[in-house]
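Item description
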Amino acid sequence: MNLTEKAAYLKGLAEGMELDTAKKENKLLSAVLDIISDITDSVDELEARAEETDELIDEIIEELDECDCDDECDCDEEDECDCDMCGLHEIVCPSCGDSISIDESILETGEMVCPNCGQHLEFTFDDDDDDCCDCGCDDCNK
């Protein structure tokens, strides 16, 4: 028997006893049973939401497991990755020396403003070198 069924059973017992709600003790018992019913409704709702959340978390984990980013990248895991496979590139602002991670869409524009110092940055991306991600890994240093 779940909580909702137990609360309904208790309420049914009280109704079967045909309690006189004019008496103070019976008013209290009736109020307690109403509160128990409300609590069980809240618990049921929370359990349903928790189940939905668990399902969403499982879906997110599955999507992350399907990500090829870590499997294909040869970059050293200790360093910031700067390869096309992960979708992020790291640049260093020549003005302030701040490291900035940018994605393909920013690369395609060819310019941006440094979020640290406000310096206007322009850059080009060389598509001729498809075999190397230029991230400092062993393949790039050959």
Observations:
- The two ends are 69 Å apart (CA to CA).
- Residues 138-142 have pLDDT under 50 and may be disordered.
- The helical segments are 3-16, 24-66, 69-72, 104-109.
- The beta strands are 88-92, 99-103, 111-113, 120-122.
